[in-house]
Known about the structure:
Organism: Streptomyces rubiginosohelvolus
Distance between the termini: 36 Å
Number of helices: 9
Family: Belongs to the binding-protein-dependent transport system permease family.
Number of strands: 0
Shape: elongated
Radius of gyration: 21 Å
Protein name: ABC transporter permease
Structural class: mainly alpha
Oligomer: single chain
Pfam families: BPD_transp_1
Keywords: Membrane, Transmembrane, Transmembrane helix, Transport
Amino acid sequence: MYELLKGLGSWLVGSEQWTGSDGIGHRLAEHLQYSLLATLVAAAIALPIGLLIGHTGRGAFVAINLSSFGRALPTVGLVVLVFLASGLSMWPVYIALVALAVPSIVTNTYAGMTAVDPEVRDAARGQGMRWYQVLFQVELPLALPLIMTGLRLALIQVVATATIAAYVSFGGLGRYVFDGLAQRDLVQVLGGAVLVALVAVVLDLALSALQRFLFRHRPAPQS
């Protein structure tokens, strides 16, 4: 174990490991690109759905069941399925990552909307506000803390799962894990896993700090 950890330390700080197209810097940029793009697409899909369900109260079973669907989704299986249908491209990876991120965003958006006090909605309607004014000027601002929690959870899940890009011969930090397994290089495998974990932890801490700063005058939302 000591030799493995010593090798990991040397691997992480070696200057040759940080340069070139296979360097940590380049792989990290690829990993973040996959993760951020997939989360943005998922947010564009999931936020309107969650807002609509929460505002109208219709289709609540969709939001509730999506949470279980997200936990049961076989991500690698989905990548393989789309890969067989579309061929060698990044589409299978992005589709799988978006499908993974959507449930967290929908369920937290719905939860944030349903947490809004009905009396606040009634008061807004009583003042003559139209439905879209109630939605965007009253409900959305009040639901925003839980919505941001959903976005944060989705991004961390995607970062942790974006290693699957290497499964279909693309880049990202997962390249170290899959290449290390193929070469029986435990130091490289451990290095890739540690880097992915560090990225996920750093992003989670940064987004949590941002969320606390933005909503420092509100009660902390429940994840």
